[in-house]
Amino acid sequence: MAKKESENILDKVHKIEKDIHFYKTELLSQRPKEYVEALHKLISMAEANKRQLIGRAHQLEHKEELEEIKAQKILKNKK
Q: Domain span at residue 19?
């Protein structure tokens, strides 16, 4: 069975979370102030992207659930 679009989005969210963790732990250690500031901007953008993707995934999950319910009703009515 193919992955649902919402699952693909949540996979992307997981990757973003891993990237954010890497930015915060590895890249921020012992760096110049300008580098840290640029990295904080990058982290903020990644977190905003993550929030948008989570919202989109929730919308798609709801849509997919409704489609499944509709398909089940159609199958039930055919019997």
A: 5-78
Q: What is the SS3 string spanning the chain?
A: CCCCHHHHHHHHHHHHHHHHHHHHHHHCCCCCHHHHHHHHHHHHHHHHHHHHHHHHHHHHHHHHHHHHHHHHHHHHHHC
Along the 79 residues of the chain, how does pLDDT read in single tens digits? 567 888 888 899 999 999 888 888 887 777 788 888 888 898 899 999 999 999 999 999 999 899 999 988 888 888 6
- Give the total number of structural domains in the chain: 1
